[in-house]
Write a structure and sequence with these properties.
Radius of gyration: 26 Å
Shape: elongated
Number of strands: 2
Structural class: mainly alpha
Order of helices and strands: HHEEHHHHHHH
InterPro entries: RNaseH-like_sf
Strand order of the largest sheet: 1-2
Oligomer: single chain
Strand content: under 5%
Distance between the termini: 59 Å
Number of domains: 3
Number of helices: 9
Protein name: hAT-like transposase RNase-H fold domain-containing protein
Organism: Sistotremastrum niveocremeum HHB9708
Largest sheet: 2 strands, antiparallel
Protein backbone atom coordinates (compact mmCIF):
# COMPACT_ATOMS: atom_id res chain seq x y z
CA UNK A 1 0.00 0.00 0.00
CA UNK A 2 2.82 2.44 0.76
CA UNK A 3 4.43 1.78 -2.63
CA UNK A 4 1.12 2.53 -4.32
CA UNK A 5 0.81 5.72 -2.27
CA UNK A 6 4.29 6.73 -3.42
CA UNK A 7 3.39 6.00 -7.04
CA UNK A 8 0.29 8.16 -6.63
CA UNK A 9 2.01 10.89 -4.59
CA UNK A 10 1.00 13.68 -6.99
CA UNK A 11 -2.66 12.72 -6.57
CA UNK A 12 -2.27 12.28 -2.80
CA UNK A 13 -0.59 15.69 -2.51
CA UNK A 14 -3.34 17.32 -4.60
CA UNK A 15 -6.03 15.72 -2.44
CA UNK A 16 -4.43 16.80 0.83
CA UNK A 17 -3.89 20.37 -0.42
CA UNK A 18 -7.56 20.70 -1.39
CA UNK A 19 -9.19 18.58 1.36
CA UNK A 20 -9.38 21.34 3.99
CA UNK A 21 -11.35 23.58 1.62
CA UNK A 22 -13.58 20.69 0.52
CA UNK A 23 -14.18 18.87 3.80
CA UNK A 24 -12.90 21.03 6.64
CA UNK A 25 -10.50 19.67 9.27
CA UNK A 26 -9.81 15.93 9.35
CA UNK A 27 -10.45 15.73 13.09
CA UNK A 28 -10.74 17.72 16.28
CA UNK A 29 -8.77 17.01 19.43
CA UNK A 30 -10.45 17.79 22.73
CA UNK A 31 -8.49 17.78 25.94
CA UNK A 32 -10.50 18.23 29.11
CA UNK A 33 -10.35 21.82 30.28
CA UNK A 34 -8.77 23.13 27.07
CA UNK A 35 -10.08 24.51 23.83
CA UNK A 36 -10.69 22.05 21.03
CA UNK A 37 -7.93 21.96 18.43
CA UNK A 38 -8.84 21.36 14.80
CA UNK A 39 -6.36 19.24 12.85
CA UNK A 40 -6.19 20.13 9.19
CA UNK A 41 -5.49 17.75 6.35
CA UNK A 42 -2.29 19.68 5.62
CA UNK A 43 -0.84 18.29 8.86
CA UNK A 44 -0.45 15.06 6.87
CA UNK A 45 1.19 16.63 3.83
CA UNK A 46 4.49 14.91 2.96
CA UNK A 47 7.46 16.83 1.63
CA UNK A 48 9.56 15.36 -1.18
CA UNK A 49 12.09 14.22 1.43
CA UNK A 50 9.36 12.54 3.47
CA UNK A 51 8.10 10.72 0.35
CA UNK A 52 11.62 9.45 -0.34
CA UNK A 53 11.94 8.26 3.29
CA UNK A 54 8.62 6.45 2.90
CA UNK A 55 9.87 4.79 -0.29
CA UNK A 56 13.12 3.60 1.36
CA UNK A 57 11.21 2.25 4.36
CA UNK A 58 8.82 0.50 1.97
CA UNK A 59 11.74 -1.13 0.13
CA UNK A 60 13.06 -2.52 3.42
CA UNK A 61 9.65 -3.85 4.47
CA UNK A 62 8.96 -5.36 1.04
CA UNK A 63 11.77 -7.88 1.56
CA UNK A 64 9.95 -9.45 4.51
CA UNK A 65 6.52 -8.97 2.94
CA UNK A 66 7.49 -10.90 -0.20
CA UNK A 67 8.70 -13.80 1.91
CA UNK A 68 5.59 -13.83 4.06
CA UNK A 69 3.47 -14.21 0.93
CA UNK A 70 5.46 -17.29 -0.11
CA UNK A 71 4.22 -19.01 3.06
CA UNK A 72 0.59 -17.95 2.60
CA UNK A 73 -0.83 -20.98 0.83
CA UNK A 74 -3.88 -22.97 1.75
CA UNK A 75 -3.28 -25.59 -0.92
CA UNK A 76 0.47 -26.18 -1.21
CA UNK A 77 3.10 -27.21 1.33
CA UNK A 78 5.61 -24.44 2.00
CA UNK A 79 7.98 -25.75 4.68
CA UNK A 80 10.59 -26.67 2.05
CA UNK A 81 10.86 -22.94 1.24
CA UNK A 82 11.87 -21.99 4.77
CA UNK A 83 15.64 -22.27 4.45
CA UNK A 84 16.03 -20.80 0.94
CA UNK A 85 13.77 -17.80 1.52
CA UNK A 86 15.09 -16.99 4.99
CA UNK A 87 18.59 -17.01 3.50
CA UNK A 88 17.32 -14.72 0.74
CA UNK A 89 15.84 -12.33 3.33
CA UNK A 90 19.04 -12.29 5.39
CA UNK A 91 21.10 -11.58 2.27
CA UNK A 92 18.76 -8.79 1.14
CA UNK A 93 18.94 -7.06 4.52
CA UNK A 94 22.70 -7.56 4.76
CA UNK A 95 23.10 -5.99 1.30
CA UNK A 96 20.93 -3.01 2.30
CA UNK A 97 23.15 -2.42 5.35
CA UNK A 98 25.99 -1.64 2.92
CA UNK A 99 24.01 0.84 0.80
CA UNK A 100 24.16 4.53 1.72
CA UNK A 101 20.52 4.98 0.64
CA UNK A 102 19.41 2.94 3.67
CA UNK A 103 21.80 4.54 6.20
CA UNK A 104 19.03 5.66 8.55
CA UNK A 105 17.66 2.11 8.67
CA UNK A 106 20.95 0.29 9.31
CA UNK A 107 20.38 -0.14 13.05
CA UNK A 108 16.88 -1.54 12.49
CA UNK A 109 18.10 -3.77 9.68
CA UNK A 110 20.88 -5.19 11.87
CA UNK A 111 18.52 -5.87 14.76
CA UNK A 112 15.97 -7.48 12.45
CA UNK A 113 18.61 -9.57 10.72
CA UNK A 114 20.04 -10.75 14.06
CA UNK A 115 16.55 -11.72 15.27
CA UNK A 116 15.86 -13.74 12.12
CA UNK A 117 19.39 -15.22 12.30
CA UNK A 118 18.70 -16.36 15.88
CA UNK A 119 15.79 -18.52 14.72
CA UNK A 120 17.53 -19.55 11.51
CA UNK A 121 20.37 -21.01 13.62
CA UNK A 122 17.82 -23.21 15.40
CA UNK A 123 16.89 -24.92 12.11
CA UNK A 124 19.83 -27.32 12.64
CA UNK A 125 17.88 -28.89 15.48
CA UNK A 126 14.73 -29.33 13.37
CA UNK A 127 15.10 -32.34 11.06
CA UNK A 128 11.69 -31.67 9.49
CA UNK A 129 13.10 -28.61 7.75
CA UNK A 130 15.96 -30.57 6.15
CA UNK A 131 13.60 -33.44 5.35
CA UNK A 132 11.19 -31.06 3.62
CA UNK A 133 14.00 -30.06 1.25
CA UNK A 134 15.15 -33.66 0.81
CA UNK A 135 11.75 -34.99 -0.26
CA UNK A 136 10.90 -32.03 -2.49
CA UNK A 137 11.04 -33.15 -6.14
CA UNK A 138 13.04 -30.09 -7.20
CA UNK A 139 15.32 -29.20 -4.27
CA UNK A 140 16.33 -32.56 -2.82
CA UNK A 141 19.71 -32.68 -1.10
CA UNK A 142 21.56 -31.01 -3.96
CA UNK A 143 20.29 -27.61 -2.75
CA UNK A 144 22.09 -28.09 0.57
CA UNK A 145 25.23 -29.28 -1.16
CA UNK A 146 25.29 -26.33 -3.58
CA UNK A 147 24.35 -23.63 -1.08
CA UNK A 148 25.93 -24.88 2.15
CA UNK A 149 28.64 -27.12 0.84
CA UNK A 150 29.77 -30.71 1.05
CA UNK A 151 33.05 -32.50 1.65
CA UNK A 152 35.02 -30.28 -0.76
CA UNK A 153 33.88 -27.07 0.89
CA UNK A 154 34.62 -28.53 4.32
CA UNK A 155 38.16 -29.43 3.24
CA UNK A 156 38.66 -25.95 1.78
CA UNK A 157 37.45 -24.27 4.98
CA UNK A 158 39.75 -26.44 7.10
CA UNK A 159 42.68 -25.54 4.82
CA UNK A 160 41.77 -21.85 5.29
CA UNK A 161 42.01 -22.27 9.06
CA UNK A 162 38.47 -23.14 10.16
CA UNK A 163 38.80 -26.32 12.24
CA UNK A 164 35.04 -26.30 12.92
CA UNK A 165 34.01 -26.59 9.25
CA UNK A 166 31.01 -28.81 8.61
CA UNK A 167 30.06 -30.97 5.66
CA UNK A 168 26.42 -29.89 5.53
CA UNK A 169 25.55 -32.38 2.82
CA UNK A 170 26.71 -35.19 5.11
CA UNK A 171 24.68 -33.73 8.00
CA UNK A 172 21.60 -33.65 5.75
CA UNK A 173 22.23 -37.23 4.58
CA UNK A 174 22.47 -38.44 8.18
CA UNK A 175 19.25 -36.59 9.03
CA UNK A 176 17.43 -38.32 6.16
CA UNK A 177 18.94 -41.72 7.07
CA UNK A 178 17.88 -41.30 10.71
CA UNK A 179 14.33 -40.43 9.66
CA UNK A 180 14.14 -43.39 7.27
CA UNK A 181 15.50 -45.75 9.95
CA UNK A 182 12.95 -44.41 12.42
CA UNK A 183 10.14 -44.99 9.90
CA UNK A 184 11.33 -48.54 9.22
CA UNK A 185 11.35 -49.37 12.94
CA UNK A 186 7.92 -47.77 13.40
CA UNK A 187 6.51 -49.65 10.40
CA UNK A 188 7.90 -53.02 11.49
CA UNK A 189 6.37 -52.55 14.95
CA UNK A 190 3.02 -51.70 13.37
CA UNK A 191 2.96 -54.72 11.08
CA UNK A 192 4.08 -57.18 13.76
CA UNK A 193 1.25 -56.23 16.12
Amino acid sequence: MTRTSHELKAAVDLFIKSADALFGPITTLKVKGQRAKKISWMAFFLTTEMWENLLRCTEVLEDADAIQHLFSSDTDPTLYLLIPVIEELLTAWEDKEEVERYAEYIEGLKKSRLKVQKYYNKFDKKPAIILSLAIHPYYKLWWIKIHWGGAEEKAKEIAEGNPDAIDWHEVAMKTVEAAVSHCRVSHSLTFEN
